[in-house]
Amino acid sequence: MNHRSMTRITALSLAAVAALSAGCADMSERQKGTAVGAGVGAAAGAVLSSATGGKAGTGAVVGGALGAVAGNLWSKRQEERRVAMEQATRGTGVEVSRTADNQLKLNVPSDVSFDVNSAAIKPQMRTVLDRFADSLRGDPNARVEIVGHTDSTGPDSVNNPLSLDRAQSVRDYLAARGVPPSHVHTEGRGEHQPIADNSTESGRAKNRRVEIYLREPGQG
């Protein structure tokens, strides 16, 4: 298939995604997540099939099926969690948001989470984690990712394991409050994903953080 045909297929597939998104007004949140996921998957499948010499229609069907499974939901429960966590963290410096891929994100700065060179959870963070754990009760589909970060002070040999230890401390705290460890993934990224300038103290303070993501995978 030539480049012009591939471009046309891609444009049509992406147009289908836009149409699905626009037509979601009367759908449930579960249906919205599945439909849009299917559209994105169809676009990817069409391009993949064309690039490998297959039939674009077949690739779109396969891609659509994969997209429907892969999409995250933003359900009524997720919105209730967002509101509850905003209330629970008001005035603490913790940032609560909804990501572009429908995850609930908590960005927990160092002055709330951990002391310098420590993986022991501060009392201020325990209150936040208690409320977060409460919101997960009765939801076997919820999945959590915890990512630890440091500033650029110190070598990777210190920062990388410290950032992972902090993420695992959060996981262990949640596990003690009923969150299944098998539903929690942890990562430590050291200094490698800064969100501020490491040359200033205020910037380094922002970079020393823990990010907690909560998602509800679409079930198709």
Folded structure, characterized:
This protein has about 220 residues and is α+β, with helices and mostly antiparallel strands. It has two domains: about 5-70, no CATH class; about 75-215, OmpA-like domain (60s Ribosomal Protein L30, Chain: A), CATH 3.30.1330.60. About 55% of the residues lie in helices and about 15% in strands. It is built from eight helices and six strands. The protein has helices spanning about 5-20, 30-50, 55-70, 75-90, 110-115, 125-135, 155-175, 200-205, and strands spanning about 70-75, 95-100, 105-110, 145-150, 185-190, 210-215. It is globular, with a radius of gyration of 21 Å.
What keywords describe this structure?
220 residues, alpha+beta, 60s Ribosomal Protein L30, Chain: A, 2 domains, 53% helix, globular
